[in-house]
Amino acid sequence: IITLAIESSCDETSVSVLKNGRTVLSNIIASQIEQHQKFGGVVPEVASRQHIESINTVIKEALEEANVTFEDITHVAATYGPGLVGALLVGLSAAKAIAFARGIPLNGVNHIEGHIYANFIQHKELEPPFICLIVSGGHSHLVYMKDYGEYEVLGKTRDDAAGEAFDKIARVLGLGYPGGPQIDKLATKGNKRAIAFPKAYLERGSYDFSFSGLKSSVLNYLNTEKMKGNPIAIEDVAASFQQAVVEILVEKTIACAMEKSVKQITLAGGVAANSSLRGLLQQEAEKHGLSLKYPSLKLCTDNAAMIGCVGYYDYIRGYRSTLDLNGVPNLKIGERYSKYL
Ligand code: ATP
Ligand code: MG
Ligand code: FE
Q: What interface predicted TM-score (ipTM) does this complex get?
């Protein structure tokens, strides 16, 4: 099965060609970061327009790099949610057009499942069950993946996503967008014990997250120090903030693995690129006899290869999307909206 996969849920136009779901023949990513940087975040209307301008070129590049033509493609996959509806529709419409013109099957894919499946592309031998910590720009989820397509959400954020918190703190520190990588870099120069920011554990036994309190306390700290006229060591703020986020994420992830008695943990989403999160989770996983796997940096952030991988496993399990499939901006993990066979 040769899958052509399209991702356009946010600010990356990406197209990938895959063989049997796990072998990536090409994975082209056209990022719009530059177009959005001057606004300090993703502007939905700008994103949709940019996807329209890029999509055909990116499809062409992906076919060329994979050394295939439309005639070789036997299956199409595209993200249909969650995401910005105008952005989603660009990739989804292109995918539908290809499926219709070529008379080949289409699978609509959940973007968040895509982030999990990036692990299957990176680690050819990886199989469920495992606990996956998904931490991206819009989501923070702890998921028990029992089998392909079978998920139990054990916890999620009640307010900001982890990546969102990184981006907001980076903005107040004047680090620019996207903030995660900048905080990660700056934190290596700071002292993670310099400032004791509060960690929200929530109720006993809860695997949910909350990052808004932490965000407020960073803001309060900065305002108070400024008012006192104290110099602010932003590398210490970055390191201490990052440490608070990472400690919470790691503790709850390990607790989930213990509760479900699984031996494997995976990381997914853009924040999975964070060096401190990878480091501490690796250390704690080893202590508890768990293996930790995460995707390469390129596969952590938005890309179409991970979408193609989900599409492939849905396809071989008998799912098909019909051509009236619509974009679903608030699609939940494990939820199936379209009419499937
Ligand atoms: P979603 O997948 O929830 O729809 P998204 O696709 O925008 O959101 P991703 O592309 O998965 O999110 O991840 C982007 C996020 O990852 C941004 O918030 C960014 O700041 C964060 N990020 C990227 N690299 C790092 C890093 N090294 N440390 C912390 N955060 C990071
Ligand atoms: Mg993005
Ligand atoms: Fe994403």
A: 0.97
| pLDDT string in tens for the chain (341-residue length) | 999 999 999 989 999 999 999 999 999 999 887 777 777 778 788 788 999 999 999 999 999 999 999 999 999 999 999 999 999 999 999 999 999 999 999 999 999 999 999 999 999 999 999 999 999 999 999 999 999 999 999 999 999 999 999 999 999 999 988 899 999 999 999 999 999 999 888 888 899 999 999 999 999 999 999 999 999 999 999 999 999 999 999 999 999 999 999 999 999 999 999 999 999 999 999 999 999 999 999 999 999 999 999 999 999 999 999 999 999 999 999 887 655 54
In whole angstroms, what is the distance from residue 166 CA to residue 148 CA?
Answer: 31
CA 169 to chain centre: 19
**CA–CA gap between residue 277 and residue 246 (Å, rounded):** 5
Ligand 1-lining residues (CB < 6 angstroms): 9-10, 83, 111, 115, 136-139, 163, 166-167, 178-181, 184, 269-271, 273-274, 301-302
In the structure encoding, which two tokens stand for residue 147, read together? 């089998």
C-alpha dihedral over 278, 284, 290, 294, to 10 degrees? -10
